[in-house]
């Protein structure tokens, strides 16, 4: 999981590690100045995508 700000570096790293097909789960940027509630909301949204990928392969 990575913020959208770092989408290109994340894809480059995946490619360098031999997984050019791998795509991370992306959340909105920035993180550091958000409230606990805002972070929890982003995590909840990302969690749905993570679970879907783990259970359906998509």
Distance between the first and last residues' Cα: 15 Å
Structural class: mainly alpha
Strand order of the largest sheet: 1-2
Binned strand content: 5-15%
Q: Could you state the order of secondary-structure elements as H and E?
A: EHEH
Poorly predicted runs of 5 or more residues: none
Q: In one word, what is the shape? A: flat
User: Can you count the helices?
Assistant: 2
Q: How would you state the average pLDDT, rounded?
A: 93
Number of strands: 2
Query: Please, how many domains?
Result: 1
Q: Which range best describes the helical content: under 10%, 10-25%, 25-40%, 40-55%, 55-70% or over 70%?
A: 40-55%
Characterize the main sheet. 2 strands, parallel
Rg over CA atoms, rounded to whole Å, is 13 Å
Descriptive notes:
This protein has helices at residues 7-16, 36-56; strands spanning 2-3, 26-27. It is 53% helix and 7% strand. It has a two-stranded parallel ribbon with strand order 1-2. The relative contact order is 0.18.
Brief overview, please?
The protein is 53% helix and 7% strand.
Keywords:
58 residues, two-stranded parallel ribbon, flat
List the helices and strands and how they pair.
Layout lengths: L1 E2 L3 H10 L9 E2 L8 H21 L2
Parallel strand pairs: 1-2
């Amino acid at each position: 999981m990575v913020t959208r700000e770092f989408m290109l570096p994340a894809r480059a790293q995946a490619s360098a590690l031999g997984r050019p097909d791998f795509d991370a789960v992306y959340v909105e940027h920035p993180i550091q100045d958000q409230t606990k509630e805002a972070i929890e909301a982003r995590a909840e949204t990302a969690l749905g995508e993570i679970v879907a990928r783990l259970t359906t392969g998509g």
